[in-house]
Amino acid sequence: MNLAFYISAAVAVVATLMVITRANAVHALLYLIVSLLAVAVVFYMLGAPFVAALEVLIYAGAVMVLFIFAIMLLNLGPATVRQEREWLRPRVWAGPALLAVILLAEVVYIVGPGRGPAQELPTVGARKVGAALFGPYLVGVGLASLVLLAALVGAYHLGRRERPSGRGGA
Amino acid sequence: MLELLWLVPALPFAGFAALALFGRRLPRNATAAVGAGSVGLSTAAAGLVAFRFIAWPPPGEAWTQVLWSWIRTDGFASQVALYLDALSVVMMLVVTVVSFLILLYSVQYMAGEEGYSRYFCYMDLFVGSMLTLVLAGNLLLLYLGWEGVGLCSYLLIGFWYTDPANGRAARKAFLVTRVGDTAMLAGFLLLFTSLGTSQIQEILSLASSRWPPGSATAVAAAALLLGGALGKSAQLPLQVWLPDAMAGPTPVSALIHAATMVTAGVYLIARTHVLFALAPAVQTAVAVIGAATLLYAGLAALAQSDIKRVLAYSTISQVGYMFLALGVGAWSAAIFHFVTHAFFKSLLFLAAGVVILRLGHERNMLKMGGLRRALPGAFAAFLIGSASLSALPIVTAGFYSKDLILYEAWSSPAGGRWLWTAGLVGAFLTSVYAFRMVFLTFFGEMRQRPVERHGSCMAVSLAVLSVLSVAAGLIQLPETLGNAPVLTHFLRTALPPSGAAPAPAAMQAMLQIVAGAVSLAGIWAAYLLFLRRPEHAQDWLRTRASLAVYRLWQAGWGFDWLYDRAFVRPFLRLARANRADFIDGFAEAVARANIALHGALSQTQTGRVRWYAMGIAVGAVVVIALVVFT
Amino acid sequence: MATVPLEHSLILAAALFVLGMAGVLARRNVVFVLMSLEIMLNAAGLAFVAAGSRWAQPDGQAMFIFILAMAAAEVSVGLALVLLLYRRFKTLDVDAASKMRG
Fold it and tell me: Which residues of B touch C23 (CB under 8 A)?
């Protein structure tokens, strides 16, 4: 069973790597979806089937689709690809890669090698999660809904086309 | 009735305040009434106080009126306290009477001028400050009055400020007296720090009990106070400002630069005479400076053609006599000469003012002449004043005061033959230049016709001062001529006698005859040189050498030239070199460093999102590293 | 079910997070920056879920749901801003919007 975990982990990492290095936006998005699916598998391995489903449904399903819509609206064509290739000289990766490596090293150091034998990871089902959400995390749920409302209103307002008279705007 | 003392300086200050606030809106009459009237009321108050003091002297012959507590801190306290003793009474009376008469005169003299209320405002401030000076009970209050009169001198010399030359003269006066004032302040601080008090009487008694005669502190303090006196009283080497101060209106010259402010130095030395008695070296210096100055100024006065400049040098010379008296220990004689000098010098200035005004602001004597029939009143006044100045025997007040000084110079233990001789030569010179003025202005052919009559106010002042110039001598008659030493007797409570052994009457009479003869000889010489045979005087100036000497005397013996080369030019050179102001450079360097730092830091604000994200990432890495690895 | 040590999950989350961060820093196209941001959020959520499952509590998953909601909100607003950026500057270069410079 653990093997599935490690394979999914590898897939996720490789897919993410591909996401950040592609010049074509749609390709990158597809790789991102792959990465998200792999992470969903990891969730399942960890005994969290509910969020695994959520990951696929919402993250890969809704958010990524939103991305694709936006890219379609932006009409990024081959010119964009050429531009991306221009912008993606290897030199650009030097600083970020260095920072990334250092940060990873730090976290690995903090987390450290495993102490003691690994335990069984029981499944925490949707029922328990729901009970938690309606119980201790009720306020959080309310706040999250407010955030979504705010995002809705904001996105609507920001996305409005400018009137031909020149009024309205950012 | 002694409680009225505070009114004496307060009334002129009130006049000043009223005129400063409302002067512009008042009509001329009201301004004159406030300006001169406040001083008049002050004179009346002074008279009442003096009467009470003389008739029923307070215990100890001194009285202090504490008005309020001025400064009160740990280690230093000062009150506004007025001190009344015999010396204060004399000074107060002379200052108020002379000021009132001069202000009365100015009501008409300044009638045609712009800035009428400004004039009276400054004059009231001056009178108030001068009275504060002479009535002050502690050094801080005295210094306040001292600075006040200095300020008013500046304001009034530069009264006609639209002409930049007047401003220069005013600044010169202020700067030169400032040199003396700084020395005086240093002296005050020395006295305060070594004796712990600023009350004058306490200082004098503590000094005489603690300091042995000739001790370094006493000499230092006395020398510094002398420096201050030299500045204000225009003695060598700080006398250069007084001739130029004649740029101000004539009543100003009369009041400030003849009768009162220039005698502030004399008053200071007389008031602190104990300190000078403790420092015989400094006291000798006072006498020597006095003698030198009176000769210097006498010769310089001979070569002036501006009538006011002659009177200015004459003032310097007569104050030199007062310093001579102080230097030989004849404190009361100096005050006596101050009294008579106040009367006859202001009389001379006011009479000269009439001449100047009637000739349309003409001051050059060489352009005057033959005015005695056209201006009889002014002529009479001027004649009386010059006679008193020349110490015409017996009939003038000047004779008695100058004679007393010469007598003391001869017989006082601190005096000497040389000082007496200097005084005698000076008396001769005085007569010569005084009557030179009379003959050049009022005799000979008339070169310019006088215009416009003036009213009676000026005549009243001239008349009163003429009477005083003659009669004031009566308050101090020597043994041989009536033996009524009223003034010295009155002043003995404040000023000790000089310690001169009383000479036999024959000796006194001899000295008086010599003095009188010298004075008459001077008048005769002036008559010969300037009236009978004016060509002789011209002949003497033919040779190159004598012309050079004449020019030297006219330029005040070249002191202006010397100070210009020695002080003014190097200072200006230094100022020009420091034009970039290197001290300001420090402040500017700070500002520039700040701006540079700002520039450097604002480079980090690129406005690019990824840059900021990089900043966050680096920060996170660093903080985590710090937390984890330390 | 599985017996994966917590540390390994956390290291996976860290790796994904770090990759996302590198993407944010290195890419100039704003859409890619947003994508990398999503990666980072996802990684954070993974860390939460892993921690929650270690203790067999639903709290980790609840946190993940919140993160998800927040990510969705952020994406919608972010993409609206991307559209605005494109309309204003006619380019998707994130460096073009540097008016706050200086």
Answer: none
Of the two residues B310 and B257, the one the predictor is more confident about is B310
- Contact between C61 and A147 using a beta-carbon 8 Å cutoff: no
Query: Contact B357/B454 with Cβ under 8 angstroms?
Result: yes
Mean pLDDT, residues B614-630: 89
Q: Which of C6, C7, C75 sits opposite A63 (nearest CB)?
A: C75
Q: What pLDDT, on a 0 to 100 scale, did the predictor assign at position B603?
A: 86
Residues of B whose CB is below 8 A from A107: 624
Sequence length of chain B is 630
Q: In the prediction, which pLDDT does C46 show? A: 95
Report, as an integer, the average pLDDT of B16-34.
88
Q: Which chains touch A (3 or more CB pairs under 8 A)?
A: B, C
The label of the residue with tokens 């970020």 reads A96
Largest CA distance in chain A: 70
In CATH, what number is assigned to the domain containing residue A100? 1.20.120.1200
Residues A78, A97 within the same domain = yes
pLDDT tens string A133-167: 999 999 999 999 999 999 999 999 988 876 655 55
A55 shares its domain with A111: yes
Q: The domain containing residue A131 runs over which residues?
A: 125-161
The reply to whether A105 and A138 lie within a common domain is no
CA-CA distance, B430 to B609, in Å (whole number)?
A: 94
Average pLDDT, chain B: 87
Residues 11-30 of C with CB under 8 A from A: 11-12, 14-23, 25-29
**Is residue A170, in this structure, part of any structural domain at all?**
no
B420: nearest Cα among B305, B287, B223: B287
Does A26 share its domain with A88? Answer: yes
Query: Model ipTM?
Result: 0.91
pLDDT tens per residue across span B557-567: 888 888 888 98
Instruction: Select from C22, C54, C68 the Cβ nearest to the Cβ of A100.
Output: C22
Q: Are residues A43 and A91 in the same domain?
A: yes
**Cα–Cα dist B29/B9, whole Å:** 23
Per the domain annotation, does A40 fall within a domain? yes
Same domain, A99 and A157: no
Please indicate whether, in this complex, the C-beta atoms of A106 and B618 are within 8 angstroms of each other. Answer: no
pLDDT digits (tens, 9 = 90+) for B426-459: 999 999 999 998 988 888 777 777 777 666 677 7
Number of domains chain A is built from: 2
Quick: pLDDT tens for A145-154. Answer: 999 999 999 9
Tell me if A102 is assigned to some domain.
yes
Q: Show the CA angle centred on residue B302, arms to residues B299 and B308, nearest 5°.
A: 115
From the list B332, B341, B476, B327, the residue with the least C-alpha distance to B400 is B476
**Do both A157 and A95 map to the same domain?**
no
Whether residue A102 lies within 8 A of chain B, CB to CB, comes out as yes
A73 with A149, same domain: the answer is no
The Cα angle at residue B601 between residues B595 and B605, in degrees rounded to 5: 125
The region of weakest confidence among A82-91, B214-223, B261-270, B475-484 is B475-484
Q: Under an 8 A CB cutoff, do C29 and A87 touch?
A: yes
Interface residue A95 vs chain B (CB under 8 A): yes
Using the Cβ of C89 and the Cβ atoms of chain A, whether some distance falls under 8 Å is answered with no
Residue A168 inside a domain? The answer is no
Residue B27 predicted with pLDDT over 90: no
Instruction: Give the pLDDT mean for B393-417.
Output: 83
- Chain C residues within 8 A of A113 when measuring between CB atoms: 7
Q: Which residue of B has its CA nearest to A110?
A: B628
Mutate to test the interface with B, among C17, C18, C24 (most CBs of B within 10 A): C24
Q: Best of A31, A50, A63 to disrupt the C interface by mutation (most C CBs within 10 Å)?
A: A63
DSSP-derived secondary structure letter, B6: G
pLDDT at C84 over 80: yes
Q: Is B167 exposed, middle or buried (0-12, 13-18, 19+ CB in 10 A)?
A: middle
Contact B257, B242 (CB under 8 A): yes
